[in-house]
Structure formats: structure tokens, C-alpha cells
Specification:
heterodimer, A: mainly alpha, MetI-like fold, 2 domains, 0% strand, B: MetI-like fold, 14 helices, 74% helix, globular
């Protein structure tokens, strides 16, 4: 909360119209509330109310098919979470996804940005090509890859056989499915981050490289001592947004594997969906929602804090 | 030496490009083949290079014969357009009020907006479903659209944008007899067109690509947006031909490709502002 206020005061001070002591004009008040009301009503109904409901229902045994018989059961739902093996697995799956996809996707994106940051003929074509998977929706990507990864007649396995590698089960094997989803997610998402890295690379002062050339630095040294440090703010921004996004993984496993095989690809968000929406067990799903939401908020605050320290260092 | 280096660069860049393009080429090409040809070509170069004698529109005709996919594409276009038009209006009005007027509780409303920005919407999607359900709006278009009309991030972006809007322009509008609302729609909105396009495109894409919320909020097949309908068709995967599926994927991809070609500049700019995906 203190951080909020601090950040808020900074925001407020940028308001040129703001003066504490001046009294309000009636016309301004009427206009302002007229302009604000639709947004405020929608925000209260569809953002605040859900949060309040998640908090209250999390402490009950509310079951959607018996709405009149919900009882306050205290911390029972939260106790159950600790021993819920599928929930723990879905949490570990989500962590696994985040830990692998963030570095993979960002290093792919940086590599691509370095390739297309050349003043050379035809570079526009490469830029468009690398960006092209980002145009597809996640559902289209998931379906396309599921078809291509078909264990018996899919494109990828046929190509693998052509180069002498035996057919792989990919999505139908508990040990491979999550890694397959990680690879496909990185493939589809890295185009966006490439564009953002590229904007950062374009801002690097060319004279830095010239100076390094004079000092006899090689390409790797230039990359390590000039490119990386200048890209740091952008890198941290991308780490934060990609990490938070990755925690909310659901579409790919929902379409490609349905969470299987053997719950090897079920994620937290999907677990909440299954329990609350499919099985109508609102009380328990609300409790999980609550913990997950707090977890995400804490994670983003921690990463932002690291970001701030990095920046001042 | 320089030529060798250049050649190496082009080879490397092209190999990387193939890795991104081949799946898309295969998708489009396969949509113009019948299944037998797809599987006959699958381990040859013809999987990726058109052999014109084998191509036909059969799979499109057959797909549309048993499933009218354009109905769902149309639904999605309408939903996304409504979300953009209504959403931009409501959110920018709120942003404008917070940037320009002096009124009581302004600080508190601003704190409120900023606080809501850090709550991940997807994480609270289940309680959102409960609220819409309580309102009796599940399986209705308003129930599907209303929750995502409001976007606190966009309110904040608009506010930041309007903070630097020249006050003289608005004053001159008022002297000419425009009301506050008139000034907004006739002066502020048209002169912030770039901002509106950028935010609008991102809103459109988010709405078009949305999956989880429509799955929960709309189960009526006639109302389904395209992403949900695609998955429903695909879920029946043992009864659908690969060529039909690829035709469906291609149809869904075309409107977005057109959008990208027209608005490329704004999409990249906008992604940097909000860091989506």
C-alpha cells in the first residue's frame, strides 16, 4: 500500500491542473462524474465485485448446483490445498513452464533481433518472417502444431524419420508434453519481443561500437560490454511481462492436451477452470483463485523490486 | 572476405526464417489439398512447394458444406468492433476526466484505477463468471462483452496522453459554443487519432484472440466467436479431415493478416507500450 501511495503521488504531481487549495467549479464536477460514471460502474461490477466474491466464497463450501446450502467452513479449503496432489502438480507444471519458457523465448527474441538489426538488403523480409507466427491466435497455433506433431502421421515425425530420428510421441507422452508446449509457446511469442529488442538496439549509440573497434574489441566483447548493458532496462521489462504472462498459461494445454497425459501439462489457471467451471465446486476454486492472485501480485512486486535495484546499480 | 560474410549471413537468416515460415506455408498449402495428397506429400518437398496440378478449393467447399465458419468469423468481427468502439469511448472519457477536471475524490479514484491495474484479470475469471451468472447474463452477448469493455490499463494510458493535450484548443472550442462533451468528440478525439488507433488495434486483437472467457460465457453455438468454434470443431478431431481443419485455420488467419498489413506500425508501437503476449 505504501508503494502505491508513493507511486500515486508521483503520478499525481505530473497533473498540471492539480492544485490542492483551489475550490472546485460546479460545471467541472458535473462533467467529470458524467465522463467517469460508465467506467466506474463497469469497474466495480466486473473487477471489484469478483475479487470480493473470491474472498468470501473461498471460506465456504459453495457448490453451484446447491446455491442455498453454502456454509462458512473457515480455512478448510486452504487446508485441503496443501494435500491436493493434482493442485500441487499443476503448480509445479506452471513453475516448470515459466522457468523454461522465459529464458528460452527471450534469448530467441534477442538472437532474432541481432539478426535483423543489420543495414542490409532484404532485412525487411526476415523481420516479417520472424514476426509472422505472432500474427496467429493461440488457438490456431495450438491446433496447427497438434496436427503437425501427430505421433503417427504428423509432419514433424515424418521429417524426423527422413533424417533418421525415430518417431516421438511429443504431446502424448507425460515426459515430453510440457517441453513441447514450452517450445511451441516460445516459437509463437518471440516475434513480439524481437520487435521490442530491435527498438532498443536501434537506440544504441553507434559511436560506442566504433570506439570499441579502435580498442580492438571483438564481436563477442562488444555484445557483452556494450549491447547487453544498454539493453538492460528493456530486458527487465520483458522479463517481467513475459513471466507474468507465462504464469497465466492455459490456452495451449487446454487445446493441445487437455492437461494430460497424467496431468503433466495441467496449469493452475486450468485447475481453477476445471474445479470452478466444470465441476462447479465454487468454494474450493475460489480459495485457489485467491491464493493464485496473491501469488501473482507478490511475484510481480518482487520482480519489479529486483528491476529497480538493477537500475540503480 | 566481405562477400563470404554476407553470404553466410543470408544463409543463416534464411534458415531461421524457414523455421518460422514452414508451418504457415504447410498450413496454407494443405488447405488446398485433399487429405490423400497431404499425406502423400508429407515427407517430400511438395509439402512446402505448390504442385499446381494437385491444388483445389475442395476442402473449403466441403468445410463450408457442413460447417458455416463465416458465421463465427462474423460474430468475432462484430464482438471485437463493438468492444473497440464502446471500450475506447468509455475508457478515454474516464481518462480525459482524470486528466483535465478538478473534482472531489479525484485522488481516490486515481488510486483505485492504479490499484486495479495490478490485479491480473485472468486469475479472477472464475469469480467474474459468478458475477455475470448472478446477473443472469451467461450465454448472452452483453454478458460476454461488458466485462471486457472496461480496461483500466487503457484508462491510464489515455489519462497520460490527455495530460499533455493543449488546453488552448479546448478553450477555443468553448468560445465557439461547444459543450464539454462537444469539445471531447469534435476536438479532443479527432486530434488524438493516433492514440485511438493504437489502443483500438490492441483491443481488437485481444478481443479477436480471446478464448477462455468466451468458453465460459457463451456456450450457444450460434453466438460463439471463432476461436471457440475452431476448438469445438477440432475437438471432434477423429471425424474431421486435416485439409478441412487447415482450411478453417487459414480462413481465421486471413482477417488478422490484413489488419497487420494495414496497421503494422501501430501494432508494434502499441505492443511496446503495453507489452502484450
Amino acid at each position: 500500500m505504501k508503494k502505491f501511495i508513493k507511486r500515486f503521488v508521483k503520478v499525481r504531481n505530473t497533473t498540471e491542473h492539480f492544485r490542492q487549495s483551489e475550490h472546485y467549479k460546479k460545471r467541472d464536477i458535473v462533467s467529470a462524474f458524467g465522463f467517469l460514471t460508465p467506467a466506474l460502474i463497469l469497474a466495480i461490477l466486473f473487477i471489484v465485485l469478483p475479487i470480493i466474491l473470491a474472498i468470501t466464497y473461498g471460506f465456504t463450501d459453495y457448490y453451484l448446483l446447491k446455491p442455498n446450502d453454502k456454509e462458512f467452513i473457515g480455512l478448510e479449503n486452504f487446508k485441503r490445498m496443501i494435500t491436493d496432489e493434482v493442485l500441487i502438480q499443476s503448480f509445479m507444471n506452471t513453475i516448470k513452464f515459466v522457468v523454461f519458457v522465459v529464458p528460452l523465448q527471450l534469448s530467441m527474441a534477442l538472437g532474432l533481433a541481432l539478426i535483423v538489426n543489420k543495414k542490409i538488403k532484404g532485412v525487411g523480409f526476415f523481420r516479417t518472417a520472424y514476426f509472422s507466427p505472432a500474427v496467429l491466435s493461440l488457438v490456431v497455433i495450438s491446433i496447427l502444431w497438434t496436427v503437425m506433431l501427430n505421433p503417427t502421421s504428423g509432419l514433424i515425425n515424418e521429417l524426423l524419420e527422413n533424417v533418421g530420428i525415430s518417431k516421438q510421441p511429443f504431446l502424448s507422452s507425460a515426459s515430453q508434453a510440457m517441453y513441447t508446449i514450452i517450445a511451441i509457446s516460445a516459437w509463437s511469442g518471440c516475434g513480439y519481443q524481437m520487435m521490442i529488442f530491435l527498438a532498443g538496439l536501434k537506440n544504441i549509440d553507434g559511436s560506442l561500437y566504433e570506439a570499441a573497434d579502435i580498442d580492438g574489441a571483438n564481436a563477442f566483447q562488444k555484445f557483452l560490454f556494450i549491447t547487453i548493458p544498454t539493453l538492460k532496462p528493456i530486458l527487465m521489462f520483458l522479463v517481467i511481462t513475459t513471466t507474468i504472462q507465462a504464469f497465466k498459461l492455459i490456452v495451449q494445454p487446454m487445446v493441445m492436451t487437455g492437461g494430460g497425459p497424467d496431468n503433466s501439462t495441467i496449469t493452475i489457471l486450468q485447475y481453477i477452470y476445471e474445479y470452478g467451471f466444470r465441476h462447479r465446486n465454487i468454494g474450493y476454486a475460489s480459495a485457489v483463485t485467491l491464493v493464485f492472485t496473491i501469488f501473482l501480485v507478490v511475484i510481480s512486486i518482487i520482480i519489479k523490486k529486483l528491476f529497480r535495484e538493477e537500475k540503480t546499480a | 572476405m566481405k562477400i563470404v560474410k554476407k553470404t553466410l549471413f543470408y544463409i543463416l537468416a534464411s534458415l531461421v526464417a524457414l523455421q518460422f515460415l514452414l508451418p504457415l506455408i504447410w498450413m496454407i498449402l494443405s488447405s488446398f489439398k485433399i487429405d490423400e495428397v497431404i499425406y502423400k506429400d508429407i515427407d517430400t518437398i511438395f509439402a512446402f512447394v505448390p504442385k499446381f496440378s494437385d491444388l483445389s478449393f475442395d476442402s473449403y467447399v466441403e468445410l463450408l458444406g457442413f460447417y458455416n465458419i463465416f458465421k463465427n468469423v462474423g460474430n468475432s468481427l462484430i464482438y471485437a468492433s463493438v468492444t473497440v468502439v464502446v471500450g475506447l469511448t468509455i475508457n478515454s472519457l474516464a481518462g480525459y476526466a482524470l486528466a483535465r477536471f478538478k473534482f472531489p475524490f479525484k485522488d481516490w479514484i486515481l488510486i483505485f484505477i492504479i490499484a486495479l491495474m495490478i490485479v491480473p484479470i485472468e486469475a479472477t475469471i472464475l469469480p467474474l463468471f459468478l458475477v455475470v451468472n448472478e446477473m443472469g447474463l451467461i450465454n448472452t452477448i452483453p454478458g460476454y462483452l461488458l466485462p471486457f469493455i472496461i480496461n483500466v490499463m487503457n484508462i491510464f494510458l489515455f489519462r497520460q496522453h490527455f495530460l499533455s493535450f493543449p488546453g488552448e484548443l479546448i478553450e477555443s472550442g468553448k468560445i465557439d459554443g461547444l459543450s464539454e462533451v462537444g469539445c471531447f468528440f469534435r476536438i479532443v478525439m479527432p486530434s488524438s487519432l493516433n492514440m485511438y488507433i493504437t489502443v483500438g488495434i490492441l483491443t481488437f486483437l485481444a478481443s479477436w484472440n480471446d478464448f477462455l472467457w468466451p468458453v465460459m460465457a457463451l456456450s450457444n453455438a450460434d453466438l460463439m466467436p471463432i476461436q471457440v468454434a475452431l476448438n469445438a470443431v477440432f475437438a471432434d478431431k477423429y471425424n474431421i479431415f486435416t485439409s478441412h481443419m487447415m482450411a478453417a485455420l487459414t480462413i481465421v488467419t486471413i482477417p488478422i493478416v490484413i489488419l497487420y498489413i494495414i496497421f503494422q506500425k501501430y501494432i508494434v508501437e502499441g505492443s511496446m507500450q503495453s507489452g502484450i503476449k
